[in-house]
């Protein structure tokens, strides 16, 4: 008996160790395997396209993940089930999250509709309002520098017979309020202008736009994906009627967002999808409780830490600009130098081809435009809209460093500087040396 008692636990222990080694992988191993290499990962300076979430990177706020996990594992009821406790506990978590989102923007929780992200919110707002008021009010105004999802929604509306004005912006990226005023027609139903531009970081005069729209009896929608949680925004004070929100821009999970829809004066919109009538009939489909909880937690944290975060990001911006302009020649800041969110800096480097620069920078993850358009070698439409010369538009890089420290910033500058100084020896620079006017170059898509 004594022999068996010592023998069996040993066997179990050996089996356990074998299984653990064979079947369970450490997160680090998973990362390496998925990336297919053993090297350290590049510094992530592209937070505008969204911070990374577990399991890839803990740079996403772990507090958000902590809030979400119980709703992935223990509380799995459908928040729309009214007949049992499983549904009630999920519903109560969803309503808490709705309040957290509402509190961040000074809204009533009943004015928050959960969506899959800002793309859906923008589609819902632009198409929904214009289609609802369509018969009498067939005109919508937006700007040439909006996110693709707003511009493409407007194109769809045009194909349905609605009329759209795409306002140009000034060379600093800001709209001309007088021009907006003149563009409003008796049949205008909606003005859609983003708060902070995702490529050049400029901040539109939202207060003035809201005031103008309210005084002219036109609804005002703003794409707040890059602004909510980063700068103070109160929808009542700013006369905003609809606002799009995305969780993954503020350390929340990807795949969830919200649309603020004002109740008084009431905004009506035609829903995009038909179904069970969830979200006050505006957005049918089951609300994913863990994601909504993640969005709520991210909003709460952003609200509590906004002042500190803004100061930190402003200090980083100053340092980045100083380091880059003092070490690299002919650098141009795209967009207004003052009316901007400091966490997004878009720079053009004369004589350097932006895409090659980004590809050569193995140790820093940056982008040359918005994530959705950066696959194209065409210069960014935002840079074109502000009148950037084509050669400079081709040599632009966007830094976005909402969640980074001085050390990461220093490494980025060193890396960019090293490569730029090396690349000054290659084509564009050589052409300038040979006296060729590079503005006369015809750029084509490869
Ligand atoms: C200004 C702006 N609007 C909308 C979106 C789309 O957001 P989501 O990824 O949540 O659909 C983005 C994301 O890149 C953005 O920057």
Helix content: 40-55%
* Spatial separation of the terminal alpha carbons: 78 Å
CATH class of the largest domain: Alpha Beta
Task: Give the rounded overall mean pLDDT.
Answer: 82
Number of strands: 12
- Which residue ranges are poorly predicted, with pLDDT under 50 across at least 5 consecutive positions? 19-36, 49-59, 370-375
Coarse morphology: globular
Could you state the CATH homologous superfamily of the largest domain?
A: Type I PLP-dependent aspartate aminotransferase-like (Major domain)
CATH architecture of the largest domain: 3-Layer(aba) Sandwich
Main sheet overview: 7 strands, mixed
How many structural domains? Answer: 2
Q: In percent, how much strand structure appears in the residues? A: 5-15%
What does this structure look like?
This protein folds into two domains: 3-60 and 306-440, Aspartate Aminotransferase, domain 1 (Alpha-Beta Complex), CATH 3.90.1150; 63-300, 3-Layer(aba) Sandwich (Aspartate Aminotransferase, domain 2), CATH 3.40.640. 42% of the residues lie in helices and 12% in strands. It contains 14 helices and twelve strands. A seven-stranded mixed beta sheet has the order 2-8-7-6-5-3-4, with helices on both faces. Helix 8 links the parallel strand 5 (188-192) and strand 6. Residues 19-36, 49-59 and 370-375 have low confidence and may be disordered. Bound molecules: pyridoxal-5'-phosphate. It holds the Pfam family Aminotran_5. One of its GO terms (biological process) is Mo-molybdopterin cofactor biosynthetic process. InterPro entries: Aminotrans_V_dom, Aminotrans_V_PyrdxlP_BS, PyrdxlP-dep_Trfase, PyrdxlP-dep_Trfase_major, PyrdxlP-dep_Trfase_small. The chain crosses the membrane at residues 6-24.
């Amino acid at each position: 008996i004594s022999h068996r008692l010592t023998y069996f636990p040993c066997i179990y222990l050996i089996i356990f160790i074998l299984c653990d080694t064979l079947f369970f992988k450490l997160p680090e191993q998973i990362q390496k395997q998925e990336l297919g290499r053993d090297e350290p990962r590049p510094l992530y300076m592209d937070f505008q396209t969204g911070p990374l979430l577990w399991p890839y990177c803990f740079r996403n706020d772990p507090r958000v993940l902590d809030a979400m996990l119980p709703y992935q594992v223990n509380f799995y009821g459908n928040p729309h089930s009214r007949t049992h406790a499983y549904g009630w506990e999920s519903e109560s978590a969803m309503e808490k999250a709705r309040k957290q989102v509402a509190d961040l923007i000074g809204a009533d929780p009943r004015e928050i509709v959960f969506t899959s992200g800002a793309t859906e919110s923008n589609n819902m707002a632009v198409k929904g309002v214009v289609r609802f008021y369509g018969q009498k009010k067939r005109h919508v105004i937006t700007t040439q520098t909006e996110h693709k999802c707003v511009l493409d929604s407007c194109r769809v509306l045009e194909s349905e017979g609605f009329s759209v004005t795409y306002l140009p912006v000034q060379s600093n990226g800001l709209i001309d309020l007088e021009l907006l005023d003149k563009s409003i027609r008796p049949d205008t139903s909606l003005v859609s202008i983003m708060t902070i531009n995702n490529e050049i970081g400029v901040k539109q005069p939202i207060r003035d736009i809201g005031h103008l729209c309210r005084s002219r009896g036109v609804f005002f929608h703003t794409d707040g994906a890059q602004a909510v949680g980063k700068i103070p925004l109160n929808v009542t004070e700013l006369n905003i009627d609809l606002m799009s929100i995305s969780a993954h821009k503020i350390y929340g999970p990807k795949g969830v967002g919200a649309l603020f829809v004002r109740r008084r004066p009431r905004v009506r919109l035609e829903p995009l999808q038909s179904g069970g009538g969830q979200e006050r009939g505006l957005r049918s489909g089951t609300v994913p409780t863990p994601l909504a909880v993640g969005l709520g937690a991210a909003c709460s944290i952003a609200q509590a830490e906004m002042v500190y975060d803004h100061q930190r990001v402003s200090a980083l911006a100053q340092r980045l600009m100083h380091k880059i302009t003092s070490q690299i020649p002919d650098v141009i800041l795209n967009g207004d130098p003052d009316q901007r969110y400091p966490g997004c800096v878009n720079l053009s480097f004369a004589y350097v081809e932006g895409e090659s620069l980004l590809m050569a920078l193995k140790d820093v993850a940056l982008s040359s435009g918005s994530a959705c358009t950066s696959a194209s070698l065409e210069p960014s439409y935002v840079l074109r809209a502000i009148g950037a010369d084509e050669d400079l538009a081709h040599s632009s890089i966007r830094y976005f460093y909402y969640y980074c420290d001085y050390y990461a910033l220093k490494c980025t500058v060193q890396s960019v500087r090293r490569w730029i100084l090396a690349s000054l020896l290659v084509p564009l620079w050589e052409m300038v040396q040979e006296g060729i006017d590079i503005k006369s170059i015809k750029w084509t898509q490869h």
